[in-house]
Amino acid sequence: MAEIDGSRIENALPGRQGRVLFAFLVANRLRPAARDELIDAIWPDSPPANVESALSALLSKLRRVVELEGRREVRLLLADDAWVDLEAATDGLHRAESAAAREAWEEVWGPARVAQHVTARPFLPGEDAPWVREIRNRLEGVYLRALELVAQACLHIGGSELDTAERAARALVAKAPYRESGYRFLMELLDRRHNRAEALRVYEQLRGLLRDELGTGPSPATQDVYRRVLG
Predict the structure, then answer these.
(1) What's the confidence (pLDDT) of residue 135?
(2) Average model confidence (pLDDT) for the chain?
(3) Predicted structure pTM score
(4) Alpha carbon distances (Å) from 214 to 5, 127, 145, 180, 222
(5) Would you call 155 exposed, middle or buried from its count of C-beta atoms within 10 A (0-12, 13-18, 19+)?
(6) Cβ proximity of 77 and 69 under 8 Å
(7) d(CA 45, CA 118)
(8) What does the DSSP assignment read for 74-142?
């Protein structure tokens, strides 16, 4: 979704290529982008025969919808208080990490949840270009780390937030089954709820996965949680 001055603009963008160009300029709005970059972003595999003219026409149409600066190098101009979801996710993760380092768990919750919800949505679904894949990979890393911070913070906060911790931990296990942190958070949560048998089952699930797929075992950190659950 894109909105300027309270009005949705995505339907006003010049077709699929215009949406790709707009997304690239938003993702790189803090610097000007050379025309060669824009061409590679829009037509990564098979640019049209007269690609310079095609790019000029596309930029001309886009200028009718949003404010662009420059000709040989192009930059999208947004208001100082513009909210860009990609930037909000990165900023939220940084703030959550900082609060976690201070063990200020209530301060972790909000920004980590922002990062989680933004990055849970797919970036430019249906498009495939090197820059798109790079952003998707980065957002996946932000999403997984945000899930870890949410689970950790909610375990410390307790109360009704334990349900949020469980959802985050299970999402982490499902999305990254070889990332042990999700299993640890889930084991701690289940043990907190006096469901030791289920916590041990989670450990065995991880142990079997690592043994069968990688020929290894759980890390010392995970084994520590296992021993605490045992007793």
Answers:
(1) 96
(2) 94
(3) 0.91
(4) 53, 33, 23, 13, 16
(5) buried
(6) yes
(7) 29
(8) EEE---TT---HHHHHHHHHHHHHHHHHTT-HHHHHHHHHHHHHHHHSPSSTT---HHHHHHHHHHHHH
